[in-house]
Amino acid sequence: MSARPKPQVLDTEAALSSLPPEWSDDQIPITIASRVSSSNDQTIVALDDDPTGTQTVYDLPVLTEWSESIIEQEFSRGTSAFYVMTNSRSQTPDNAALINEVIAKRLMNAAKKYGRRLSIISRSDSTLRGHYPLEIDVLAKTLQQQQNQNDDDDDDAKKDDVACTIDGQIIAPFFLEGGRLTINDVHYVAEGSKLVPAADTPFARDAAFGFASSNLLDYVEEKTGGRIKRSDVMSISIDDIRRGGPERVRAKLSQLTNMQACIVNAATLRDMQVFALGLLDAESKDKKRILVRSAASFVQARLGLQKRPILDASVINSSGGTENNGGLIVVGSYVPKTTVQLETLLALDELEKIEINVADLVDKQKCATTIDAILDRVENAIASGKNTVVYTSRELVTGENPSESLAIGNAVSEGLVSIVSGLKSQPRFIIAKGGITSSDVATKGLGIRRAMVLGQAAPGIPVWSIGEEGKFPGMSYVVFPGNVGGDDELAKLVSRLSV
C-alpha cells in the first residue's frame, strides 16, 4: 500500500471558503445553555492539565487543589460547572495517572453524596501536547471501577472492563482564538494567512510530548502505539456537522462502543456548538457514555456560553490602595511564539526588565542568591509604580529524556514562584506567561485554592480573580498561554493596563 500524502500548508481564506456554509441555527448555544441551567442535578467538571484552559469561559470557579473537602464544598454549592486545574502536563506519566485517578474518585464520591450526575471533560492542549491517551484511559477505568464500587458490585472482572460502560472517547482539539482548526481530519495551526499542519510546527517537537502526525486518525494510532488503528477511529466531518447538523452527529455518536475513538473536525465555534448538541442528544436520548478530550472551545460550546466582550482595563487593574503600584509580568514559557512576544514587550519604554539565567536556577548553589537579588529589584520597581517583567533566558535547556526535561522546567518554575511568593508589595496586576509558569505561580506563588474566571483580557487569555485564601485577595491574575496571540499581543496588553 502506498504511503499517504503528507498534509500541506493551506491558504486560510481559500481553505475556509471551500467549506459548506455553517449550520444555520443561531439558537443552538441558547438551547444548550437552557439544558445546562435546567439540569439541576448535573455537575460538569473540566479537568484542566494547565491553567490556560479557562480561556473561553467566564463566571466559573477554578479549583487549584482537589482535597475531598474542597470538592465537596463545590458540590454542596450546587455549582453546575467548574474547573479543576490538575497541571498534569508538567507531571511524569505516573504522577499524571495518579492525579486523574484520585480526582475522578473524589468527584464520583461527591456526586453520589449530593445526588448529582457527573460529567467530566479532559481539557488539554490545542496543539496536541499532553498525556494522551493516558489520562483519558485512566479516567475511563476509574469511573468504571468507582461506579461498580458505588453500586456495591464486587465483580473484579467487570471492574477491569472499561468497555462495559464507556462507549467512546472524543478527540476535539479545535480552539478558535488560537487558530487551531481541524479540516479533513488534519489539525492545523494558523500562522499569519496560512494554516500549517500541526506536526510541522514547533509544538510537535516538544521535548516531552512531541508527535509526527497532523492527521488526527494517524495521531490516535501514533499516540496509542498502534493499540487503536486509524481505520478504527470514527470521524465527525465538517460535512456531517454543516450538512447534517446535530442529528447526524448524534446518529454517528450513537454507533460508538467499547471506548472507540472519534475525532471532530471544526473550523468555527458554530461547528463545535453543533457537535456539542449532537453529543448531548446521544448521551440523553441514546444513553451513550462518552468521555471528551478537548481544547478550550469545546468547554465553551458544551456549556452554551455566548461570546463576551474583552474585559476593560479598569476591571483587571487592582484598586484599594495598590493602583499606583507597578504590575508584574512573569515569563517562563520557551515556545517560539512567547519569545517573539517577549522581544516586542522588551521594546517598550518605562519597563523594568529582569532576565534570569536558566542555568543559575538549575544550579542548586546559585539558585538562592540569584532569586534574592532579583526579588529586591522587583520589589523596588513595583513599589515605585514601574511595571516589571521577569523572564527566563531564551536558550532552551533540555534533559536527556522527557522526564529530565520536565524536571528542568519545574526547577525553573520553582525559581519564578519564589520571586512571586516573596513579594511584600501587591502589584496592580500579575501576568504569567506559559502553562507551567502560570500554574505554579497561581498555586505556589499566590496560594490560590479557588478563583473565579472573570473573562478574557484578550482573545484566549483568561483573567482570574484571586480568592480570599490567596496572597493578594481580589487581585486580577492574567493567565497568558505560551502559544496564543499575535507577536505584539503581550506588549499591547501591558500597554493597555498601564494607562
Can you describe what's shown?
By secondary structure, the protein is an alpha/beta fold. Helices cover 40% and strands 19% of the residues. Strands 10-11-6-12-5-2-4-3-17-18-19-16-13-15-14 form a 15-stranded mixed beta sheet, with helices on both faces. Helix 8 links the parallel strand 10 (234-236) and strand 11. Helix 8 packs parallel to helix 9. The longest helix has 21 residues, at 93-113.
Portion of residues in helices? 25-40%
N- to C-terminal separation?
A: 62 Å
Overall spatial form: globular
Class from secondary-structure proportions = alpha/beta
SS element count, helices: 17
Biggest sheet statistics: 15 strands, mixed
Q: Overall pLDDT, averaged?
A: 92
Report the count of strand segments: 19
**Whole-angstrom Rg:** 22 Å
Ranges where pLDDT stays below 50 over 5 or more residues in a row are 157-164
Going across the major beta sheet, what is the strand order?
A: 10-11-6-12-5-2-4-3-17-18-19-16-13-15-14
- The proportion of residues in beta strands is 15-25%
